[in-house]
């Protein structure tokens, strides 16, 4: 409880005096509730308010008890030439300090408009009681236990997309999963080889159940998931297990419900959102007319501050930007009249700031329109994202896997998915067959798409695992969606948790996923080629539906990899030339019965000795590959 004699000091800090935000140094530490030696200082942007105060249980929610003062800046334009003294003008920011206040205090801002007062949740609130409740003064101190984790380079990542509300939860409790319950399953991920999780948005949203793409308070961690301390604990525990954390952020729209930002200080045009939003046709998005105003300096600063907040305050290792198409375009229809140059320059600035301050951090764009510019550097006009989700992989590969008629499977589609790059770099793309979007909205998990009523039968298991093998052996950053490692079926819902019993019942499939991960990361020291950009097609048979390709990092032993794929329901014979004279070891046969009693266990020679060039100068082989299966060979000598 805060003492009843709390007073407010309405002074302006010269060092932190607000001015028109410039794109130089984000200042999120100087906004919102700021702990001081004497109490808590508050700074808020409300240019149209006549008065602003902070209210809470410490002053019985009385608007007149603790007023904030306007901050001023000097208006210097033309004064030097005219020889006149500069004038001070209101900056739109309000500041004050409440002495004696401490961590845990609940508060709101009270803004006066005419004769009326209205309360608003702090836009920079790092914790809220709920989406329509109160802001909470949070403690910035946390025992990170010497956390010095560094994310592996892009070519050594395996990403696991996770939804906190359904990943791990107590059965039958009627509540969403929490960050604490998710920690309990991190050892499961560590054992598989996954080294990075991508968390679906956890900024405070309306209600307790959501995908997270309806952010109400972008600096606060969802209260039903456990709040900010729980997220810091999750990141710390993930890092201690060698697992990085990428967070999904939503800047293409806010809300649209429970938005305290809406008409924040009373001003608006056209009955739209006010100072934080566009107030004309540019406000329109597929989720409501709530697009932030990317051209307003204070809003640009707000979004850049938020991006750095997750990296610096929570030690996140990267960010995935939701649907950047609607940051750079109003309607996403290709009409240049709907382009948003301010949105494009905003992503450039945020990426520039992130890469300068946190060189190891990864920024990922979900745009799905195959634009090299998204991952091109700023100096070439690009947005400078580290990578982007690749629609040229997920859509054609899913179509091939789901297609019921083997003869209609397109190897050209598979080849296009394997060989695609952005700016000539395959590791500027994230490749996957399942994501939250691909297993909902009328679509389902691969096993359910293949066999809707018999998701554990042979066809479902074989084609789903063939897809996993393709993801793990194709150049790019592989990503799986939660539960894909044990063939979770159905479709994604935010109120249906993963069925962890499948991890036991389908332990062979889980073992296959683990073996693929360990090969992908070269954990046995024999498959470094899967981390390289080298790629060549060795064989294709469009009738038999078989394909062979070569992967390498450098031309050296334990580096070359050959991958053989069969997209047909029967075993197939493949005849082709290996890349060079060497001993080649079979590292994985996805048709092995150790992975499922349903599999055929089609035999394949464990080792090929192709060093005798006198008898076999072309390194020619004939191999049988099982139905809907993959073989992976490594070069030993």
TrEMBL record:
<feature type="active site" description="Proton donor">
    <location>
        <position position="366"/>
    </location>
</feature>
<comment type="function">
    <text>Catalyzes the formation of the alpha-1,6-glucosidic linkages in glycogen by scission of a 1,4-alpha-linked oligosaccharide from growing alpha-1,4-glucan chains and the subsequent attachment of the oligosaccharide to the alpha-1,6 position.</text>
</comment>
<dbReference type="Pfam" id="PF00128">
    <property type="entry name" value="Alpha-amylase"/>
</dbReference>
<feature type="domain" description="Glycosyl hydrolase family 13 catalytic">
    <location>
        <begin position="161"/>
        <end position="514"/>
    </location>
</feature>
<dbReference type="InterPro" id="IPR014756">
    <property type="entry name" value="Ig_E-set"/>
</dbReference>
<feature type="active site" description="Nucleophile">
    <location>
        <position position="322"/>
    </location>
</feature>
<dbReference type="InterPro" id="IPR006047">
    <property type="entry name" value="GH13_cat_dom"/>
</dbReference>
<dbReference type="InterPro" id="IPR006048">
    <property type="entry name" value="A-amylase/branching_C"/>
</dbReference>
<dbReference type="InterPro" id="IPR044143">
    <property type="entry name" value="GlgB_N_E_set_prok"/>
</dbReference>
<keyword id="KW-0378">Hydrolase</keyword>
<protein>
    <recommendedName>
        <fullName>1,4-alpha-glucan branching enzyme</fullName>
        <ecNumber>2.4.1.18</ecNumber>
    </recommendedName>
</protein>
<dbReference type="InterPro" id="IPR017853">
    <property type="entry name" value="GH"/>
</dbReference>
<keyword id="KW-0119">Carbohydrate metabolism</keyword>
<dbReference type="InterPro" id="IPR037439">
    <property type="entry name" value="Branching_enzy"/>
</dbReference>
<dbReference type="Pfam" id="PF02922">
    <property type="entry name" value="CBM_48"/>
</dbReference>
<dbReference type="InterPro" id="IPR004193">
    <property type="entry name" value="Glyco_hydro_13_N"/>
</dbReference>
<dbReference type="GO" id="GO:0004553">
    <property type="term" value="F:hydrolase activity, hydrolyzing O-glycosyl compounds"/>
</dbReference>
<keyword id="KW-0808">Transferase</keyword>
<comment type="similarity">
    <text>Belongs to the glycosyl hydrolase 13 family. GlgB subfamily.</text>
</comment>
<feature type="compositionally biased region" description="Low complexity">
    <location>
        <begin position="1"/>
        <end position="16"/>
    </location>
</feature>
<dbReference type="GO" id="GO:0005978">
    <property type="term" value="P:glycogen biosynthetic process"/>
</dbReference>
<feature type="region of interest" description="Disordered">
    <location>
        <begin position="1"/>
        <end position="29"/>
    </location>
</feature>
<dbReference type="InterPro" id="IPR013783">
    <property type="entry name" value="Ig-like_fold"/>
</dbReference>
<dbReference type="InterPro" id="IPR013780">
    <property type="entry name" value="Glyco_hydro_b"/>
</dbReference>
<dbReference type="GO" id="GO:0043169">
    <property type="term" value="F:cation binding"/>
</dbReference>
<dbReference type="GO" id="GO:0003844">
    <property type="term" value="F:1,4-alpha-glucan branching enzyme activity"/>
</dbReference>
<dbReference type="Pfam" id="PF02806">
    <property type="entry name" value="Alpha-amylase_C"/>
</dbReference>
């Amino acid at each position: 409880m805060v003492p009843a004699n709390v007073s407010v000091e309405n002074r302006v800090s010269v060092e932190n005096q607000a001015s028109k935000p410039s794109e130089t140094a984000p200042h999120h530490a100087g906004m919102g509730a700021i702990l001081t030696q004497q109490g808590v200082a508050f700074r808020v942007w409300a240019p149209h308010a006549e008065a602003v105060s902070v209210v809470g249980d410490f002053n019985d929610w009385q608007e007149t008890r603790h007023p904030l003062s306007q901050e001023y800046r000097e208006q210097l334009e033309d004064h030097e030439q005219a020889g006149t003294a500069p004038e001070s003008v209101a900056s739109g920011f309000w500041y004050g300090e409440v002495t004696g206040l401490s961590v845990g205090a609940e508060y709101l801002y009270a803004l006066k408009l005419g004769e009326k007062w209205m309360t608003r949740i702090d836009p920079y609130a790092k914790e809220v009681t709920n989406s329509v409740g109160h802001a909470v003064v949070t403690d910035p101190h946390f025992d990170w236990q010497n956390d010095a984790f560094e994310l592996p380079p892009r070519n050594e990542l395996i990403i696991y997309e996770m939804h906190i509300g359904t990943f791990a939860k107590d059965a039958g409790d009627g509540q969403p999963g929490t960050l604490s319950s998710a920690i309990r399953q991190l050892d499961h991920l560590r054992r598989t080889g996954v080294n990075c999780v991508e968390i679906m948005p956890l900024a405070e949203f309306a209600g307790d159940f959501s995908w997270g793409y309806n952010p109400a308070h972008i600096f606060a961690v969802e209260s039903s998931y456990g709040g900010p301390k729980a997220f810091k604990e999750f990141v710390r525990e993930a890092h201690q297990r060698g697992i990085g954390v990428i967070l999904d952020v939503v800047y293409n729209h806010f809300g649209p419900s429970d938005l305290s930002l809406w008409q924040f200080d009373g001003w608006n045009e056209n009955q739209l959102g006010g100072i934080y939003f566009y107030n004309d046709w540019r406000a329109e998005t597929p989720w409501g007319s709530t697009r932030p105003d990317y051209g307003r300096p204070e809003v640009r600063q707000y979004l850049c501050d938020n991006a750095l907040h997750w990296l610096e305050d929570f030690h996140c290792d990267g960010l995935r930007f939701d649907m950047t198409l609607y940051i750079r375009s109003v309607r996403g229809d290709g009409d240049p009249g709907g382009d948003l140059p301010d949105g494009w320059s905003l992503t450039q600035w945020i990426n520039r700031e992130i890469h300068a301050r946190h060189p190891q951090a990864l920024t990922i764009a979900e745009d799905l329109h195959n634009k090299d510019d998204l991952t091109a550097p700023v100096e070439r006009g690009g947005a400078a994202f580290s990578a982007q989700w690749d629609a040229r992989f997920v859509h054609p590969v899913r179509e091939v896997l789901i297609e019921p008629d083997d003869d209609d499977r397109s190897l050209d589609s598979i080849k296009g998915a394997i060989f695609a790059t952005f700016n000539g770099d395959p590791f500027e793309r994230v490749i996957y067959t399942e994501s939250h979007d691909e297993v909902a909205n009328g679509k389902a998990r691969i096993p359910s798409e293949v066999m809707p009523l018999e998701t554990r039968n042979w066809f479902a298991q074989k084609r789903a695992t063939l897809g996993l093998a393709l993801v793990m052996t194709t150049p790019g950053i592989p990503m799986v969606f939660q539960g894909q490692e044990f063939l979770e079926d159905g479709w994604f819902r935010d109120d249906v948790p993963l069925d962890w019993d499948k991890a036991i019942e389908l332990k062979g499939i889980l073992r296959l996923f683990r073996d693929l991960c360990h090969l992908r990361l070269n954990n046995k020291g024999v498959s470094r080629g899967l981390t390289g950009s080298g790629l060549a097609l060795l064989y294709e048979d469009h009738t038999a539906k078989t394909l062979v390709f070569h992967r390498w990092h450098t031309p050296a032993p334990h580096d070359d990899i050959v991958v053989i794929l069969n997209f047909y329901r029967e075993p197939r014979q493949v005849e082709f030339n290996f890349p060079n004279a060497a001993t080649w070891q079979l590292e994985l046969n996805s048709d092995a019965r150790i992975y499922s009693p349903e599999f055929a266990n089609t035999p394949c020679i464990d080792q090929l000795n192709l060093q005798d060039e006198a008898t076999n100068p072309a390194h020619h082989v004939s191999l049988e590959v099982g139905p809907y299966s993959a073989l992976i060979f490594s070069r030993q000598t």
